[in-house]
Design a protein that fits this description.
The protein has 213 residues and is mainly beta. It has two helices and nine strands; from the N terminus they run αβββββαββββ.
Length: 213
């Protein structure tokens, strides 16, 4: 009989042996690192604005900060809250003969902070109309907003853990319409453009206490 016609007999299993087991990867890592304690919502915040030349208004360097005496927040804002927004700069793309993008770059760009103040405080009105601080009446001769401010947004999450966003140099870049109606509050919707402070090594803005380890 030819060799390829021979039947190969398997060796019998020895006592204690077992059939090969299928190995299964440990998937616990997928679900075990979720932590609801690190989910945060900002239940309260206060926005402070000071004139750019106000030397008494000392900017925060940590969450251990209290506003200088005589400085007060702008008060209530709309339920949408305050929005930190990155504004992308000019994008340049170069495509090859087949449509593939072979080069891409973005120049410029900046950050803004947007909110709608609903308290008619003097500071809010002055900032909206770019008026001299402390002026009661509003005297408008143009639409340009040139004044610069220091800005601090201090907040608390649901566990009363603080966070602080601060920018040494901001100015009003956009304002929405001020609507006079019986059915809604007066809302001063303002967008602050965050500028780079004068001097070397200074950040556009800093945030303290946002990340939770």
């Amino acid at each position: 009989m030819a060799d390829n016609d021979k039947t190969v007999e398997k060796a019998p299993l020895v006592q204690g042996d077992s059939a090969p087991k299928k190995l299964t990867a440990d998937t616990d890592y997928i679900k075990k690192n979720n932590d609801a304690g690190k989910v945060r919502l900002i239940k309260q915040y206060a926005l402070y604005l000071a004139d750019s030349n106000d030397t008494a208004f000392v900017m925060p360097t940590s969450t251990d900060w209290t506003p200088p005496e005589g400085h007060f927040p702008i008060g209530y804002s709309k339920e949408d809250g305050a929005v930190l927004h990155p504004e992308t700069g000019d994008e340049t793309e170069i495509k090859a003969h087949n449509g593939d993008i072979v080069y891409s770059s973005v120049d410029g760009g900046y950050w803004t902070l947007q909110l709608g103040a609903i308290e008619c405080k003097r500071r809010v009105v002055n900032v909206y109309f770019d008026q001299t601080p402390g002026v009661d009446a509003v005297h408008v001769n143009g639409v340009t907003a040139n004044k610069e401010y220091k800005l601090v947004l201090a907040g608390l999450d649901q566990s009363d853990k603080p966070f602080i966003l601060c920018a040494e140099r901001v100015k009003v870049s956009e304002r929405e319409d001020l609507t006079f109606t019986y059915s809604d509050t007066l809302t001063f919707s303002i967008t602050f453009k965050i500028l780079t402070p004068a001097g070397t090594g200074k950040n556009q803005f800093d945030i303290y206490g946002l990340a939770v380890d």
